[in-house]
Amino acid sequence: DFGPAGIMNKAITLSKDEEWKRVRALLSPTFTSGKLKEMFPIIEQYGDILVKHLRREAEKGKPITMKEVLGAYSMDVITSTSFGVSVNSLNNPKDSFVEKTKI
Prior knowledge:
With 103 residues, this protein is mainly alpha-helical. It folds into two domains: 1-31, no CATH class; 32-101, no CATH class. It has four helices and no strands.
């Protein structure tokens, strides 16, 4: 079987039928318009940090690995909106939380 293994079997993007309905029912309350409006200032805050980071890196004249930068931005937004934890991985890539999430 070439399908996903382990916990990835439970991902909503890969779930089917009843499993998809179950996972969607659990996640839907998180993404109401009211909840998203509450999250927007956090997303905007990290967007500003992202822009400053990109400008700072561009001034160095070296290539920027966008996968790493956008991964850090995503981690910052997700940890802050989901768990209330400010990791600031864009400016602190050696943070223990960041290091432990790398595969």
